[in-house]
């Protein structure tokens, strides 16, 4: 399929389509346009042609056009977790640039349905070369996935004990990094908003408190499923209290953006807590105030995951590989020294 057809489908110029698809360092100012271009390329099974560039450099490395499925392990849509939505967009670009065809995006209900109706699955549906899992795979689905796909790789904020290749950025270490920064600013009464059920970021929260000999006050812990709406709801509860924390650590940026929404809607005279979170989604940089967060290196994680998957498909390795990425503190405007 030609670039002209993608341009027609996406409403972009041929020049813009060419830059987006064939120049890895090009950044399109209009993110919605860039997404339409990649979606059109996926629908048309477009494969970027790097052969001419490679011949210019004196080498020609033609990779097979592998078909790859992507499994969104925890959610029914990408809109439910912006971190994974952005990670998926980067992964989609990475696959196409490595001459791979993104076959399907499958959600948890899709996989559950397929596992229950395996006898009805058409043989042609059993043949993608690999599967990339975004998030932690439900353990009950793993036997089915390993039967359907010979080559698996996972991308997540935390490692698992499962039997497949994975790329991760340890959520507990990212949480400790966020907490250590708040504590360095003099904060001692720090609230946590996020998942508390075997969640690495919650573990990092209380491990940092213990390391600094600060008490774990359960009245400052607010369990949620880490959505923007719940972040706003929990912050409204905090604003209604007399003894409020001086800082709030949110398990992800979506929750933190909800906290900022609540603070804008219900101002309390003399009360402006420091807010920090994890992920570094795009909106964190445009929020008011701009959000201090721990960057999870999505682009690098997608790159290593695709490299691992293609190496396994080619028979380059058999033993399971874990690649751990490092989070990084991004200091912006939402944190300040404790006034108390």
Distance between the termini: 63 Å
- Ranges with pLDDT <50 over ≥5 residues? 50-63
Please tell me what the overall shape is.
Answer: globular
What's the tally of helices?
A: 12
Tell me the fraction of residues in β-strands, as a range: 15-25%
Tell me the total number of β-strands. 12
Spell out the helices and strands N to C: HHHHEHEHEHEEHEHEHEHEEHEE
Biggest sheet character:
6 strands, parallel
State Rg.
22 Å
Strand order of the largest sheet: 2-1-3-4-5-11
Please tell me the total number of domains: 3
Overall pLDDT level? 88
Based on the coordinates given, report the CATH architecture of the largest domain. 3-Layer(aba) Sandwich
Give the CATH class of the largest domain: Alpha Beta
CATH topology of the largest domain: Rossmann fold
Q: Work out the helicity level.
A: 25-40%
Structure description:
This protein is of the alpha/beta class and 340 residues long. It has helices at residues 3-10, 14-22, 31-43, 51-56, 82-97, 108-116, 142-148, 171-184, 200-211, 228-239, 253-265, 298-313, and strands spanning 67-72, 101-107, 130-134, 152-156, 165-168, 190-194, 221-223, 247-250, 274-279, 292-295, 322-324, 328-330. The chain has twelve helices and twelve strands. Strands 2-1-3-4-5-11 form a six-stranded parallel beta sheet. The protein has a six-stranded mixed beta sheet with strand order 7-6-8-9-10-12, with helices on both faces. Helix 11 links the parallel strand 8 and strand 9. Helix 1 (3-10) packs across helix 3, helix 8 (171-184) packs parallel to helix 9 (200-211) and helix 10 (228-239) packs across helix 11 (253-265). The longest helix is centred in the N-terminal third of the chain and has 16 residues, at 82-97.
């Amino acid at each position: 399929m030609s670039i002209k057809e993608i341009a027609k489908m996406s409403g972009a110029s041929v020049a813009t389509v060419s830059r987006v698809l064939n120049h890895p360092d090009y950044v399109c100012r209009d993110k919605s346009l860039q997404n339409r271009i990649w979606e059109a390329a996926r629908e048309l099974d477009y494969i970027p042609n790097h052969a001419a560039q490679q011949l210019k450099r004196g080498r020609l490395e033609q990779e097979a056009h592998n078909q790859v499925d992507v499994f969104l392990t925890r959610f029914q849509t990408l809109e439910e977790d912006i971190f994974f939505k952005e990670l998926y967009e980067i992964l989609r670009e990475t696959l196409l640039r490595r001459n791979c065809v993104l076959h399907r995006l499958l959600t948890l209900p899709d996989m559950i349905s397929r596992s229950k109706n395996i006898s009805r699955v058409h043989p042609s549906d059993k043949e993608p070369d690999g599967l990339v899992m975004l998030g932690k795979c439900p353990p009950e689905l793993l036997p089915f996935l390993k039967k359907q796909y010979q080559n698996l790789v996972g991308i997540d904020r935390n490692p698992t004990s499962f039997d497949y290749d994975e790329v991760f950025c340890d959520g507990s270490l990212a949480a400790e990094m966020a907490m250590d920064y708040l504590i360095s600013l003099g904060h001692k009464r720090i609230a946590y908003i996020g998942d508390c059920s075997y969640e690495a970021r919650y573990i990092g929260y209380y491990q940092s408190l213990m390391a600094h000999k600060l008490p774990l006050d359960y009245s400052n812990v607010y369990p949620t499923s880490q959505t923007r709406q719940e972040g706003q709801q929990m912050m409204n509860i905090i604003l209604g209290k007399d003894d409020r924390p001086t800082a709030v650590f949110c398990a992800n940026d979506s929750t933190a953006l909800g906290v900022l929404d609540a603070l804008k809607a219900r101002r309390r005279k003399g009360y402006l807590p420091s807010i920090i979170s994890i992920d570094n989604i795009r909106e964190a940089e445009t929020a008011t105030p701009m959000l201090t967060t721990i960057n999870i290196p999505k682009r690098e994680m997608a790159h290593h995951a695709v490299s691992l998957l293609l190496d396994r498909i080619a028979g380059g390795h058999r033993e399971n590989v874990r690649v751990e990425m490092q989070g990084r503190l991004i200091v912006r405007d939402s944190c300040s020294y404790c006034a108390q």
